[in-house]
Amino acid sequence: MIEAVLIITGAGSPEELGESEMERFESLAANPVCINLASSSRMRASGLFSDYQIASIQDYIERTGDILSASELGRVPGFTPPLAEALALFLSFESHSPAGKRHYRSIRQDATARAVIKEAGTTLAGKYHLSYGEKAEFYLSRRESTTASAVIYGKRPWKAVLGDFNARFGQGLLLWSGFSLSGFPSAGSFSRNGSGFSGTGSFSPSYRGISVDYCGRSFLLAAGVTDSRALMASAGWRGSSASIGVNGFLDAGKSGFSADWKKGLGHLTLFGEAAWADGVAALAGATWAPEYKTSVSILARYYSPDYSAPGAGAVRSSTKVRDEAGIAAGFARKWLNCTVDMALHPEKRRLRKTNYQQFKSVVNATPTITFGSWQISPVIRWVERMQLSPSGDSYSAVWRHDLRADLKASRGPFQGCLRLNGVQTASYKPGGLAYLELGYKTASDTTRLQFSVYLRGTICDTPNWTSRIYSYERDLPGCFTVPAYYGKMHSLSLTTSLLYRHKKTRHQINLRASLKDFKIQYRLRL
Fold this sequence. Notes:
Elements: H1 2-9, H2 19-30, E1 33-34, H3 40-46, H4 51-64, H5 70-73, H6 81-87, E2 91-92, E3 107-118, E4 121-132, E5 136-142, E6 146-153, E7 158-168, E8 196-199, E9 207-215, E10 219-226, E11 231-238, E12 242-251, E13 254-265, E14 268-276, E15 280-291, E16 294-303, E17 324-333, E18 336-344, H7 346-350, E19 357-365, E20 369-371, E21 374-391, E22 394-411, E23 414-425, E24 431-441, E25 449-462, E26 469-470, E27 484-485, E28 487-502, E29 505-514, E30 517-525
Parallel strand pairs: 1-2
Antiparallel strand pairs: 3-4, 3-30, 4-5, 5-6, 6-7, 7-8, 7-9, 9-10, 10-11, 11-12, 12-13, 13-14, 14-15, 15-16, 16-17, 17-18, 18-19, 19-21, 20-21, 21-22, 22-23, 23-24, 24-25, 25-28, 26-27, 28-29, 29-30
Helix pairs in contact: 1-6
């Protein structure tokens, strides 16, 4: 599933994802969106589609009939075959019921109980998700605090959320709660799809209150109020190749508004947003996809030093959507992905603060090679980052060089991965990380009994926190772990899963044991 999430979000590697985002995709995988039966409100709330992609899907179904496979979705305007294959993990393709039969309204339940045992004590967590076809959902989560969210999808294209919810509009200049990429890890990360107001079962929700939206054939209206009396609203228009939106908020006397747009012109897509909240902010970009598995992206942005939007989460290189001017470009061709980003912080420069100018480049190569029954997937990731800071009467450039090489191999149920990661920062000695993971997973995902086990050993030697290395670690479903390694460290972990299917019921037990903790999880799906 990780590979599909990377394609959809535009992240270049698992290390750039967040826990809340993986929680969202775990929930979608367990309760997929029925693309032929779901309302536009339901599709928009999933965050899988842009507004004009939703309009394109509805237009295609109206003209040619239901979409019955991922390959057919890949032929719908606004989609590509790789994107459709990635989306298929979170979609179902049930067709409209024949005349005289009831629509698809099955009840699905998913309950998870988890215990994490460490030296400091034991932490308990649990989740429950109930869905009634494409009509209603209910989320309940408990860790340090409780999250509860009830969602109703009306027969007409409207939706109401009571409890905890997310708000994601436009490109995120004004309202974007939850996960946001910290930079431009790939050419697919430049543009984003807003999901409007949506229910959430995340352990870390953004807002609590009530929200309602209406997603008609061409018009979109949404309004929400939180328990702190913050007001949010949005109105927009969408067509099969374009969308326009106007968004606003009012919170404790502080207000802001924005206008966003997205336009498809064949192989070219234009997008952008402009906002005001005590200051101005704007971004605009374009993505050109002339052929299969090839794309070029560019984006320019400006956030004034006095811009202040508490709920913002626009793409950025180092700031919380303020005091930044920058330009980024990306290129993708088959298995090669490259991006370059340059940013300037005017206020920091005026005050001669550190890191007022930055440069970052990312090169990611992921070819796949087949030798008989073996599939070999080498991954090379090279990141160069420069920060220009005051040094006496002049300025000095501080570079960070980061080179990572993975070698993944699989043959039937057997899998393995070797990683070597080296970092050089400023005048410090170079640091490095290496791990070896060996695994076994039953080849079929449809058998009654499914088993997997993975053993990983990691060693790390980095000079200090500045040269830290982030490395994704396999964990329990619903847990997402990307620890920071620094100093001299080593770790050993064992992760195993046993899944048993009986008719429509699924029982799953997951265990993870390491030198620092022990985790156990039971998951029931009905």
